[in-house]
Design goal:
Strand order of the largest sheet: 5-2-1-9-21
Radius of gyration: 30 Å
Distance between the termini: 89 Å
């Protein structure tokens, strides 16, 4: 009879126990857990502290009793395994409650001890108001401190996944929170512009963000940083990383790998044929790079537990590795990463490149559309997707899963360009953000539309001696923020002004999201300009990179932060259109037929706002039918329709002024 002993519970261990029982009704299965809880939702801990999860019991997935009843697995909690005797196939244990020593024999052993938060050697790190978050007991300590001590300020050390989830949780509990991150930006796994989306959200909720600095001392009511700054802190949360639990494996003589985790083969078998392992303690193969890595994530841990159990019972299920797909939500902002970053790909010797697009997550005319951002990283020689990143308030997770699938299956960007994605107006767009990103990658690969990432701009601008930067957005967007030294020339006016642009210079163009920048580039290329580049992702990407890490060789004016609060309820604000028409009917009337929201972003001087829908329904007093009326909109399309409607109603002197850019050129 097989005797399966599993050391460790939670993700990999608990999953291994359940899988083993489903495979073998006769095996004797024993699970040994050093802590008090055998299976709990550790990913849910921050959300209980935040109040999003209202019941602690919901986090408890299994107990020793339920494991016995449901799976006939013997679970022993508070049971520390002190040693493994590989030759005798025995594990020696200590009951941490009463000191009782026992031993358990096995035919196959599965290690699933996971990891532990790194505890820095800092003065004050062992104070009572300093916490880490890994177990239910850790969660209870934090929750009790919040209830009993009523702290007002907190510092979270570490800007990774758990750190930022706890920032949100503590803000929701009413604290003023600062996050301290040693790397150049929070979410250091991600590119700066992706992290910039999260950084802006943090700042808009009043969170202090301190990067490229570390904590040197923790005081009872403050922390001291290595840049000389002191931050108030009634409590401190340490979240600077996870270290695999390896001492037991090392003492047993099991091999440790090059990435610092327990070495296993493709079948999750350790250097001992009768010992398998999975979860945060092992190192596995990265599915894209092929290198050995440690990826402490719940998804891979669960799958490894299943496979380890299957193979321990005689299976030959090869684990294909992980691509490290991970996502975080901070307040309402979501960002994720999968596969390799561009920096990682280049470091691995791959001729890699990337593009960025920003597009509405569903059709713009359906209410509630939000911008979703997609970065696709690919091999320039093959076009194969290596990874990517996404960000947005809605739809980022969907696109991240597409990227994860593409990277794992080694799909080319050209194949994504031709893929059909789910579409109806409330759900998607006819050309999804993934299609658009693939088009951009194809255009860059072919040389049809050369582009630069915002992370490449500093080096590019430094080496270019003769450079002209063109901002092709409208005048109102340009006035609010622009790249230092840029010349403003709206796309609609570009063709008429080509003669003013020297041809013996390098031209860098950008718009808000990259789309009009591409159009401008093609116009310039068609007119004989050779060295033209578009900024991938446009002004949105510039803003995000600037707020995350800034630029060295130029400046971008940061847009003002929107003040947000977790206590404020969303209130529908009705923006009234301006329909105050001059009574002097001899005076020319300029009518902006855009929506009130668009009108508020900037309009032609003295124009009145009568939206197209109102014009069609007969609203708005325009005066006599022979009055000179000029209508305009964003591009000229809606105003052309408005002109037709007014002419049909008998107005004889109506002209289409076109788009806002054309109108402002005559202002």
């Amino acid at each position: 009879m097989e005797k399966i002993v599993i050391i460790g519970g939670v993700a990999a261990g608990a999953t291994a126990a359940a899988k083993a029982r489903r495979l073998s009704p006769d095996a004797q299965i024993t699970m040994l857990e050093a802590g008090p809880d055998v299976s709990f939702a550790n990913c849910g801990l921050p959300y209980y502290i935040a109040g999003d999860i209202d019941s602690r019991s919901k986090l408890i997935l299994q107990s020793p009793e339920s494991f016995k009843e449901q799976y006939n697995v013997d679970v022993h909690i508070h049971t520390l395994v002190t040693s493994i005797d590989k030759e005798a196939h025995l594990v020696h244990t200590l009951d941490t409650r009463d000191g009782t020593k026992k031993q358990y024999d096995y035919t196959k052993l599965i290690l699933a001890q996971g990891g532990r938060p790194i505890q820095p050697d800092l003065p004050g790190a062992d104070n009572d108001h300093v916490f880490s978050l890994w177990t239910l007991a850790d969660m209870d300590k934090i929750d009790n401190h919040l209830k009993q001590e009523d702290p007002k300020t907190a510092v979270v050390v570490g800007g990774g996944f758990i750190g930022l989830e706890m920032v949100e949780a503590l803000v929701k509990r009413g604290l003023k929170v600062h996050v301290v991150e040693k790397m150049p930006h929070v979410m250091s796994l991600m590119d700066a512009e992706t992290a910039g989306f999260i950084t802006r959200e943090l700042k808009e909720y009043g969170v202090g963000v301190h990067t490229e600095t570390g904590v040197v001392k923790i005081n009872p009511d403050s922390v001291e940083l290595d840049n000389g700054q002191t931050l108030e802190a009634d409590m401190v949360l340490l979240s600077i990383g996870v270290r695999p639990t390896l001492q037991l494996a090392i003492d047993a003589g099991l091999k440790i790998g090059e990435a610092g985790g327990l070495l296993v083969d493709e079948y999750l078998q350790t250097s001992d044929a009768d010992i398998y392992a999975g979860g945060d303690m092992v190192e596995i193969e990265h599915r894209v790079s092929g290198k050995k890595v440690r990826i402490p994530l719940a998804g891979p841990a669960n799958r490894q537990g299943r496979i380890a159990a299957e193979n321990a019972l005689g299976g030959q299920h090869a684990y294909k590795g992980s691509i490290g797909t991970s996502v975080v939500r901070v307040f309402e902002a979501v960002a994720g990463i999968t596969g390799m970053s561009l920096k990682q790909a280049k470091a691995a010797g791959i001729d890699a490149d990337a593009v960025v697009v920003h597009k509405e997550h569903h059709t713009s005319y359906y209410p509630g559309a939000e911008t979703v951002s997609v970065m696709v990283i690919y091999d320039r020689q093959t076009g194969v997707v290596l990874g990517g990143q996404t960000a947005g308030y809605k739809g980022a997770d969907k696109r991240l899963d597409v990227l994860a699938t593409a990277a794992a299956a080694k799909i080319k960007v050209s194949e994504i360009a031709d893929m059909d994605f789910a579409y109806s107006p409330p759900i998607g767009t006819a050309n999804d953000a993934m299609n658009m990103a693939a088009y951009a990658a194809e255009n860059k690969l072919s040389g049809y539309s050369p582009s630069l990432l915002v992370s490449e701009l500093d080096a590019f601008i430094e080496k270019e001696e003769r450079l002209v930067v063109l901002d092709v957005r409208d005048v109102f967007a340009f006035r609010k923020s622009n790249l230092q030294g840029a010349h403003h020339l709206p796309l609609e006016m570009l063709s008429q002004n080509l003669q003013a642009i020297p041809k013996d210079v390098t031209i860098l163009v950008y718009d808000e999201i990259g789309k009009k920048g591409h159009q401008a580039l093609r116009t310039l290329k068609g007119a004989g300009f050779d060295n033209v580049y578009n900024i991938s992702g446009g002004h949105i990407s510039l803003q995000r990179h600037a707020i995350a890490v800034g630029f060295e060789n130029f400046n971008v004016t940061l847009l003002p932060l929107e003040k947000k609060s977790i206590n404020s309820k969303d209130e529908a604000v009705e923006v009234e259109s301006n329909q105050n028409v001059s009574r002097d009917e001899m005076e020319r009337l300029v009518v902006d037929v855009r929506t009130p929201g668009e009108f508020m972003t900037g309009a032609f001087p003295n124009a009145v706002n009568i939206p197209l829908d109102d014009i069609m329904s007969g609203k708005g007093e325009l005066g006599s039918t022979d009055r000179e009326i000029i209508v305009y909109c964003a591009s000229g399309a809606r105003s052309a329709y408005a002109m037709q409607v007014l002419q049909q109603r008998g107005y004889t002197n109506v002209k289409n002024g076109g788009g806002i850019a054309a109108m402002m050129s005559h202002a």
